[in-house]
């Protein structure tokens, strides 16, 4: 072969390979959350898949609050937009969004699906269609300052809300002598989905039911639920700042992590950040079940799942990304680096995961017995129910209504939303 012919042949081969890999390699767009380390960890995981497959992932930065994400995603999906291929979906959304997602039941081997907690798979299954694979699970926890409990003579975390109030007040009064910004207890008091999560914990732990029960009956109008809300209102301006009614997860974490609160209600992700090198309270954090209001402790079930849009033009690659990210290798990395609770049962026995997050083991039952919000029974209307509930709780926290009046009105509101049937 003459030299010029050889050059031409080599160039043609290179071109063929390039176009072949171009026709296979695709760009997938994934919507990621942005709370704490979420965005960076999402980018890292997606990059690992991209490296393995030769594909590219575009990251769509979703708003921080779950309600804002839902609004945005609903618009995209209603317009049948193909802009986002993979969505990060809140555990309370399947009933509202299922029709827009690829049924993964026929695309993912059963053994892979069955490695996840059964209840989470069930929550992502609507009309026998698996709309998303679980990525991480969440349950509400009580964070406390081990150093301050010891300083004020307490041996362990509070078991009841009344104990929490007493301890928080004593620590707050003492610490405020040298730190005016110090407060007893921070939680998610803003009017949004996070408040619904916190209020579920107050209500269930007082024996006030789950707002709407599994059969669809509206149960919120009861004295125990009213008492739970009045109890939470009594914290405002005594052990919690008035501003707590504007706090989401990150505002509460900011105060706790700056060393300015004795107690905090938050999700597991706050652990990894609190133990980070730049945290003022590294090594001084305890994690316990949330207190009881007389009916045992209750943690609200949260968590996020990954689904593939029916309108995606790259469904195969999108499914591959979802399977990779929800698989054991990624879930282990995320548990170790970010304290994201695995949804794969076997990872709760993994030594590296437990060494980094001891409470995954000691509070295992908190995660497995977490209480679901009533998104299952209220189906497509959950968002309306949740908004009505957040409004009712806000009325009590801001002193506009007493618990009894608020639960009576909420019951009437939910009954109206329900109409003849859910
Ligand atoms: C967490 C939970 C999610 C919940 C949200 C409320 O992200 O995982 O389920 O809806 O908090 O703010």
UniProtKB/TrEMBL annotation:
Q: Does the keyword Nucleus apply?
A: no
**Signal peptide positions (record):** 1-25
Q: Which UniProt keywords apply?
A: Signal, Transport
Keyword Transport on entry: yes
SUPFAM superfamilies per the UniProt record, alphabetical: Periplasmic binding protein-like II (SSF53850)
> Which InterPro entries does the UniProt record give?
Bact_solute-bd_prot1 (IPR050490), SBP (IPR006059)
Q: Where are the transmembrane segments?
A: none
Q: Which domain of life is it from?
A: Bacteria
- Gene3D superfamilies annotated for this entry? Periplasmic binding protein-like II
* PANTHER family the UniProt entry points to: ABC TRANSPORTER PERIPLASMIC-BINDING PROTEIN YCJN-RELATED, ARABINOSE-BINDING PROTEIN-RELATED
The entry assigns this protein to a family as follows: Belongs to the bacterial solute-binding protein 1 family.
Q: What is this protein called?
A: ABC transporter substrate-binding protein
Q: What is the lineage of its organism?
A: Bacteria, Thermotogati, Deinococcota, Deinococci, Deinococcales
């Amino acid at each position: 072969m003459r030299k010029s012919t050889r050059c031409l042949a080599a160039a043609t081969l290179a071109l063929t390979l390039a176009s072949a890999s171009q026709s296979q390699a695709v760009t997938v767009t994934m919507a990621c959350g942005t709370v704490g380390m979420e965005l960076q960890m999402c980018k890292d995981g997606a990059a690992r898949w991209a490296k393995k497959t030769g594909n590219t992932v575009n990251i769509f930065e979703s708003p921080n609050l779950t309600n804002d994400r839902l609004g945005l995603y609903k618009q995209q999906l209603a317009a049948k937009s193909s802009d986002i291929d993979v969505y990060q979906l809140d555990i309370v959304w399947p009933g509202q969004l299922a029709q827009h997602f690829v049924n993964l039941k026929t695309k993912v081997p059963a053994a892979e699906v069955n490695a996840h907690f059964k209840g989470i798979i069930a929550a992502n299954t609507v009309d026998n269609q698996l709309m998303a694979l679980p990525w991480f699970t969440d349950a509400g926890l009580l964070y406390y300052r081990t150093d301050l409990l010891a300083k004020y003579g307490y041996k362990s975390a509070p078991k009841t809300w009344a104990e929490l109030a007493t301890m928080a007040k004593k620590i707050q009064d003492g610490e405020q002598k040298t730190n005016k910004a110090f407060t007893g207890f921070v939680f998610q008091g803003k009017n949004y989905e996070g408040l619904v999560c916190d209020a579920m914990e107050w209500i269930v732990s007082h024996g006030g039911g789950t707002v709407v029960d599994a059969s669809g009956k509206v149960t919120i109008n009861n004295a125990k639920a009213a008492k739970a809300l009045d109890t939470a209102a009594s914290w405002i301006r005594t052990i919690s700042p008035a501003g707590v009614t504007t706090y989401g997860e990150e505002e509460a974490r900011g105060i706790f992590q700056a060393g300015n609160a004795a107690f905090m209600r938050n999700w597991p992700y706050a652990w990894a950040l609190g133990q980070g090198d730049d945290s003022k309270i590294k090594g001084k954090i305890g994690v316990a079940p949330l207190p009881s209001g007389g009916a045992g402790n209750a943690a609200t079930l949260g968590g996020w799942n990954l689904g593939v849009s029916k309108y995606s033009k790259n469904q195969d690659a999108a499914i591959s990304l979802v399977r990779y990210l929800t698989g054991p290798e990624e879930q282990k990395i995320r548990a170790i680096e970010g304290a994201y609770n695995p949804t794969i049962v076997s990872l709760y026995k993994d030594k590296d995961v437990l060494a980094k997050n001891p409470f995954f083991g000691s509070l295992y039952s908190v995660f497995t017995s977490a209480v679901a919000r009533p998104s299952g029974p209220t189906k497509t209307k959950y968002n309306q129910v949740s908004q009505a509930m957040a409004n009712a709780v806000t009325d009590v926290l801001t002193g506009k209504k007493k618990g009894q009046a608020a639960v009576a009105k909420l019951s009437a509101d939910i009954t109206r939303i329900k109409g003849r049937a859910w």
